[in-house]
Design brief:
Residues 1-12 have a biased composition (Polar residues). One of its GO terms (cellular component) is TSC1-TSC2 complex. The protein is mainly alpha-helical. Helices cover 65% and strands 0% of the residues. Helix 12 runs parallel beside helix 14. The termini are far apart.
């Protein structure tokens, strides 16, 4: 028998490949071998009883702090098994009490930051729990830098407030009374840009405090970031009408500082382009009178 022509074989192969493609689209084809990405998926790290024992209040404080630093490094690079974070916190939570030495409190806050950064979306509602710890922390005026680092990790520098929406505005006002620094103002810029709707009721108080900072401080960095927050309020939120006099007075004072002159002019032009434009002109006339 003679072999079928090559063109006929090619047609048969193309028909078969077309069938395979259609079957694949509807999930009817043969199962695919697992991908390399699935095979190389990293295993979860298990927090052993030995680790928890060394972190427990039964051990010496220096031992607990040493193990916390070790767990911090693990949290940054490995995914913990389910419920491991809760077990860790139940073991070390007592070290955040006000009577504990500063070294112990700092170590636990650093652990919280590492867990938030390393475990990411796995935390779920635990994000709200950790936020409550930061918000209600006592002594509230101490360890501000470490507390702020945990807050920055929880919110991705103010961009993501999932699970924190209800209490974020109150937290911002409280923090502005105790830690209104340039570092916090950078976070506040993102909060206004990405989550302004959750700050609406407190924008007037925020603007008042920021204007007061601009008028009192001599630190150029604070003034620079404060102007960025005010700019974000004008662009991404709505400047309250009752904040307009203090806002304009602040710009009229700050415009005389050479390095901020251009920023103030730009910000004032933006205000004049909003619904408050006529009120702003009227307010400036009243100030000149």
């Amino acid at each position: 028998m003679s072999c079928p022509p090559t063109s006929t074989m090619n047609k048969q192969q193309s028909k078969e490949s077309l069938k395979d493609k259609v079957k694949g689209m509807f999930g009817l084809g043969p199962s695919r071998p697992p991908s390399k990405q699935t095979e190389s998926k990293p295993s979860e790290f298990i927090i052993t009883n030995e680790i928890l024992k060394e972190l427990s209040p039964d051990c010496a404080l220096h031992t607990r702090i040493r193990v916390i630093h070790h767990v911090c490094e693990l949290a940054k690079s490995k995914k913990f098994e389910e419920n491991a974070v809760e077990a860790l916190w139940n073991t070390v939570g007592d070290m955040l009490q006000s009577e504990q030495p500063a070294e112990a409190r700092h170590a636990v806050l650093q652990l919280l930051r590492a867990i938030v950064q390393g475990q990411g979306d796995r935390l779920g509602p635990l994000r709200a729990y950790f936020f409550k710890i930061i918000r209600e922390y006592h002594p509230c005026n101490e360890d501000l830098a470490d507390r702020l680092e945990v807050f920055k990790a929880l919110t991705e520098n103010g961009k993501d407030i999932t699970y924190l929406e209800e209490d974020i505005a109150r937290f911002v006002l409280i923090w502005m009374d105790v830690g209104l620094t340039a570092d916090f103002l950078h976070v506040l810029v993102n909060l206004v840009k990405f989550n302004s709707c959750y700050l609406d009721q407190n924008v007037s108080h925020m603007v008042q405090k920021i204007c007061l900072l601009c008028n009192l401080t001599t630190c150029s960095t604070d003034i620079e970031v404060a102007l960025q927050v005010l700019d974000a309020v004008v662009c991404y939120n709505c400047l309250p009408s009752d904040s307009l006099p203090g806002f304009i007075i602040t710009l009229c004072r700050t415009v005389n500082v050479k390095e901020f002159c251009e920023s103030c002019w730009k910000l004032m032009r933006k205000v004049l382009g909003t619904h408050l434009g006529h009120s702003a002109i009227y307010t400036m006339c009243r100030i000149m009178e």
